[in-house]
Structure formats: structure tokens, C-alpha cells
Specification:
By secondary structure, the chain is an alpha+beta fold. It is about 45% helix and about 15% strand.
Length: about 375
């Protein structure tokens, strides 16, 4: 698609194709999206994309969303995180092996980063990968691994050199979740859902071909992944799983839209949502280098708190119907309970404020008594 094609022309083309082809969100439809290049329109053509600009890709995503024809939210990890990481840091063999399954949505991925003792301070992670010849033997535990129970692959951070400072001796691995030594246990949440998981790694053997980037340079690869995550989680409130549009519709349906105070509050949320989407486009444009851009922390911070405000106001508008139910939990109640995770997932709001202060505003770094010391010598809980 030439860059000079207008957004309106592209919108018409995508809409026409969807109306002619879409018969329901199924695995075969997801594969068709991939063959068309619409799962990752902004990726280079040699990797299964269309080479679109971010603006053109946003048009494609918008049309697919309008018709309920896009990929489910949980494909965010392979499409927005691991795919770009493999394109930036992977070998030709890794790109050839993993990218086609991501483009066609054939392969689900999960993130094996956080641990019970290393969440916000991810660099203190204790999962160990010990060299054995050309391979690595991995032992440790991960948690907060969304959709690990349905994933074919995982992206893993493990400590390969405990003699280095905590963020220097880490390596990034690509893991087959069906390999011997990987145990996944789903965790039930407040909502009753079980998409968070804990993952146990016991004598998992990984070959040299599973290393993404260089040995002991995994922190740099991880930072590019996390910056992409923060930017991707903040494109609109819909990206978080709590869009504003159903709350607007609820207010119209139950008559609360006629209340000027309610209307003003909704318009405030609407304005923030759209300002956030525009700001995030700028952040994405700044994150094209492998190291990424810390400005994604700004949009991630705003999006997390905006999502909670939307959920809380939706619950308020739902009134008694949201507070009491017999069978299925109302969506307003589900959103209220589910929204508590947004200021934790992808880095807590406290961590995002630190990043913004230090890396965007240039303020002094927070004092870290362990900075520069070997990881082996640090006190850990």
C-alpha cells in the first residue's frame, strides 16, 4: 500500500475486505488475517506485515475492531512484545522459526518475567540458568504470567551470571512451554477468571538457539520489550480491556446522560482517552530503536489510572444492578474488580513515576544501596 494512499481510502479497502470475508472470529479467520497482513500491518513485508506506517496500521486496527474482526486481547503479548523483540534481537533462524506463527496467530506466547520476590524490582530476579556445555539448566519460579496455561512459547528472563550487578548478568530465553521441567498453575482472581498463572521451572534444559540477543545482555532486550508493553497497553482505554464506550451507552440507556454532572464527568474521561491515544502515537514513533523510549511510561501511567476511573464510574452508573446479581456477574462489576490490576501490570504506577522522573525529566536517580554490587551479595527477601 503506497504511503500516499489516504486514510479514508485505506479504511474503505479494509472495510470492504472484512465485509466480504468475515464470518466469525475463529482460528481460520485469524489465519486469514495473518495471510492478508492485517494482524501486523506495521511489520516489514519480509516478516509477514505490510510495511504500513503507524497511522495506516491504526486505521486497519480501527476497522477490525469496529466489526469485531480483530484478534482477541490476549494476542497482545506475541504481536506487540515478542514479535518486535525477535525482529530486533533475533537471529535469522529465530525469525524464520517463530515469526510466522505469531503473524497467523497460530502460536500464543506468555511473559516469564516477574517472580514472587522480583516484581517491580524485576532486575533482582532469582531464577537461575546454569551453563552445562552449550546448554543451560534453569530452575526458578515465575508469577503473574498471563495466559501461560494456553501458551505454546514463553519469553523468559533468567540469571546467568550472579557475580555481575543485578541488571547485568541476565539472559533472555525463548522457551517451549511443553518442554520437560515446565509446570503451569493458573491462579483464580477476584473476578473468577484464571488467566494469571504461576510457572515452575525445574531442571529445564535450554539449548544455545533459545537465547535472544547476547548472553548476559538480557536486561537490554527486556527493556525494549517492557517499553513496547507500556506503549501498547496505553493506546486507548480499550487496550486495557475496559473501554469507555459501554459506559457512555449505559448512561444513555438508563437516563443518566441527562444529568449535566454525569455528562461532564463522561466528557472528561472521553477527552483524556483521546489525548492519550494521540500522545501514544508520538511515544511509539520515539521507540523505534532496540532500547525503546521511556515515554511509554507516561502513557501507561495515565492509561492505568484512567481505566480504573472508567471502571469505578461504570459501576456507579450501574447502581443496584451492578451491586447485586444472581447468576452472571454484571460487566460493570467485573470491570471494577478487574481494574485493580492495571496499576500493577506492566510496572506499578510508583515505578512508572520513577521512570518518568529519572529518564524523561532528568531528576536524580532514586538511591539504590545495591547498585554496582554483585547480585550474589545483595540481601533478598
Amino acid at each position: 500500500m503506497p504511503e500516499q494512499v489516504s486514510g479514508a481510502e485505506l479504511r474503505d479497502e479494509v472495510k470492504r475486505w472484512v465485509l466480504e470475508s468475515f464470518s466469525g472470529a475463529t482460528d481460520s479467520w485469524y489465519a486469514a488475517l495473518g495471510r492478508r497482513g492485517y494482524t501486523v500491518p506495521h511489520w516489514p513485508r519480509e516478516h509477514g506485515g505490510l510495511g504500513f506506517t503507524e497511522q495506516q496500521a491504526a486505521v486497519v486496527r480501527s476497522v477490525l475492531t469496529e466489526h469485531g474482526a480483530g484478534l482477541p486481547d490476549h494476542y497482545f503479548v506475541p504481536l506487540m512484545l515478542i514479535g518486535p523483540a525477535i525482529m530486533s534481537w533475533g537471529t535469522a533462524d529465530q525469525q524464520q522459526r517463530y515469526l510466522p506463527g505469531i503473524v497467523t496467530a497460530a502460536d500464543m506466547w506468555c511473559q516469564l518475567f516477574s517472580e514472587p520476590g522480583a516484581g517491580s524490582d524485576l532486575a533482582s530476579l532469582a531464577t537461575r540458568a546454569v551453563p552445562e556445555g552449550d546448554s543451560w539448566r534453569v530452575n526458578g519460579q515465575k508469577v503473574w504470567s498471563s495466559f501461560a496455561s494456553r501458551s505454546r512459547y514463553g519469553m523468559l528472563l533468567a540469571r546467568t551470571d550472579p557475580e555481575r550487578p543485578k541488571n547485568a548478568g541476565i539472559t533472555y530465553f525463548l522457551v517451549d512451554m511443553a518442554a520437560p521441567g515446565v509446570t503451569v498453575r493458573p491462579l483464580r482472581q477476584l473476578t473468577g477468571d484464571e488467566h494469571f498463572c504461576e510457572v515452575f521451572l525445574e531442571d529445564l534444559v535450554l539449548g544455545p538457539e533459545t537465547v535472544l540477543g547476547d548472553v548476559n545482555d538480557g536486561w537490554r532486550v527486556a527493556m525494549s520489550t517492557l517499553n513496547a508493553e507500556r506503549s501498547g497497553l496505553s493506546e486507548t482505554s480499550g487496550a486495557s480491556g475496559i473501554p469507555l464506550s459501554p459506559v457512555l451507552e449505559l448512561a444513555r440507556r438508563n437516563g443518566r446522560w441527562e444529568d449535566p454532572v454525569v455528562r461532564d464527568r463522561l466528557m472528561d474521561l472521553f477527552a483524556v482517552e483521546h489525548a492519550l491515544a494521540l500522545t501514544n502515537l508520538r511515544s511509539i514513533a520515539e521507540s523505534r530503536t532496540p532500547g525503546g523510549s521511556p515515554t511509554g511510561s507516561i502513557t501507561k501511567l495515565v492509561l492505568s489510572e484512567l481505566s480504573q476511573e472508567i471502571a469505578e464510574f461504570g459501576f456507579e452508573l450501574g447502581a443496584a444492578d451492578a451491586a447485586y446479581w444472581e447468576d452472571e456477574m454484571p460487566p460493570e462489576t467485573h470491570n471494577l474488580l478487574d481494574s485493580r490490576r492495571f496499576t500493577i501490570a506492566g510496572g506499578t504506577s510508583e515505578i512508572q513515576r520513577n521512570i518518568v522522573g529519572e529518564r524523561v525529566l532528568g531528576l536524580e536517580r532514586e538511591i539504590d544501596p545495591g547498585r554496582g554490587k554483585p547480585w550474589r551479595d545483595l540481601r533478598r527477601s
